[in-house]
Request: fold
Amino acid sequence: MLSYTKCVTLALIAVLAAACSNSVAVPSTHAGVSYGASHAAADSAVPPADHTSILKKLTKDVVIGSTVDPNNGDTGPHAISIVETNYGLKKGQLIVCNFANSSGSAGKGTTVEVLNAKPGSKPTTFVQDDRLAGCDGAATTLGDEVCAGGLKGAGELICFDHSGGVVQTYGAPIKAPFSVADVHCNVRTASFCGYSAEYIFVGDAKTGGIVNFSVNQYGNPNEIQVASGFAVNKGSGWSALGPSGLSYNPKRDELYITDGVNDTVVGFTNAGELFVKNEIIVLKGGKTFKCKYDSGRAPCGTLIFAGSPLNAPVAMAMLPNGNLIVANGKGGNTLVEIDVSTGKVLSTKVIDKNKKQAIFALKAIGTKDSNTALYYTDRNDNSLHELEQ
Reply:
């Protein structure tokens, strides 16, 4: 069998698919993130695992500001993204989607807000677009494009420039965008970095697929469903579940996804090299995977964690030390911190004692354990909070 060759253009993708047509699908059932000998060279650049619980240190809850749209009154914050450059928008500003309208009807929010990252901030309407109905996913690129989509909208991800003008829309195979992540060049993968690719990954609540495409036209510029098989419950409102919480670790080139139907967190290794349709298939139950290419550097799936205390998880964030924090969708608004390297729960914390599901977005900031903080949205009070040390 041919070794897996990383593709950087659509033409090369076609050649690779043809050349490897006889490849045997390989199941992966790893628990936690583990690597074989073939990964040794790449892993030499990965810092040692940090098993410190950060959630235990986050004891101060600060309200940043309301997320209610000042123009049409949209409510129900459902996504967080952080501006990374100073091109139109300001570095560090926060982007938030509204999932509900002014009366609280789920799936009818159509606005994206901008807030400054300090207490007492007031939201400013970044964009209002009916195609974003049920806005539940947003990512900000290095060029200050804001790419957003909605569960009940047009079945597209729409990328807006820094002033709210439409740059491009991305459709099929996207049908119901549910979670969005921006992926930058991975310094560990030389050829990937050489093309300076920047990808958007989209979790779909209708198809159970993961779609990616390049926003800067390097690598793979067109929408491809690179993974499939995630469970969906076809919920239409706050109870909707599908592949969500997409979080990327550039130090390991891994994409993490939470599955609220099966109560699992899974990882896709070598995520920056996912270019081929259904390269990873999640098998029934969400704990095992079928991978298209049998090679040490080919992307594949791995089980990070499954079961209690996860309970219909819907949001997730990766901390600077590599740990994951997951927000449950049932059983109270509980955060669960998971050590990716061991697959163990480090801590849990209830952050809203109201039993109504409220936490639909998480985003971490910081560079080390001592300055890590965590943003979260709360639909019970329609605000953006920050957990600090």
In short: The first strand starts at residue 26 and ends at 28. Residues 10-20+41-388 form a domain with the Neuraminidase fold (CATH 2.120.10.30). The two ends are 52 Å apart (CA to CA).
